[in-house]
Design goal:
Layout: H1 5-11, E1 23-28, E2 32-38, H2 58-77, E3 85-97, E4 106-117, E5 120-129, E6 132-145
Antiparallel strand pairs: 1-2, 2-4, 3-6, 4-5, 5-6
């Protein structure tokens, strides 16, 4: 394992219940990352989505991929939120969600850098469970210097 959740928390400002990356298993700085989100039945969103047929909301799959992209961006630039930087999710193109993610699934998050221009990253992202693709998309994130970062 390359990064556990404690180290991931150094690179992402999100916290429970919104931290959606549990571990990073591989990373090539400036190029790619592979991370995992373990989906458990006690996730708070399952209480309302849907109580008798729990399905991870598609927007949270997108967010999990964006968080993995954020880890890659921060590590590649040798910056952390505590240094006064954030990566904002600013868009997603060509989003395709192919199958539901349910409790017990291990969501594999694969993100590759397409471009990085003046702190605006474009990523190709894919989520899968086992050998099955759950979703694909292109994600845009923008690096910003911020004044008050509470970590």
């Amino acid at each position: 394992m390359l990064m556990d959740v404690q180290e991931i928390k150094e690179y992402l400002p999100q916290r429970y219940p919104f931290l959606l990356v549990d571990r990073v298993v591989s990373m090539e700085l400036g190029q790619s990352i592979v991370a995992y989100k373990n989906v458990t039945v006690n996730e708070p969103f399952f209480e309302g989505h849907f109580p008798h047929q729990p399905i991870m909301p598609g927007v949270l799959i997108i967010e999990a991929l964006a968080q993995a992209a954020g880890v890659l961006g921060f590590k590649s630039q040798e910056k952390k939120p505590k240094d006064g930087y954030l990566y904002y999710f600013v868009g997603a193109d060509d989003v395709r969600l192919r199958r539901p993610v349910v409790p017990g699934d291990q969501l594999k998050l694969e993100v590759n850098v397409i471009t990085n221009r003046r702190g605006v990253y474009r990523f190709a992202a894919k989520a899968s469970v086992g050998d099955e693709v759950v979703g694909t998309m292109n994600i845009l994130c923008a690096e910003r210097k911020v004044e008050d970062v509470d970590t």
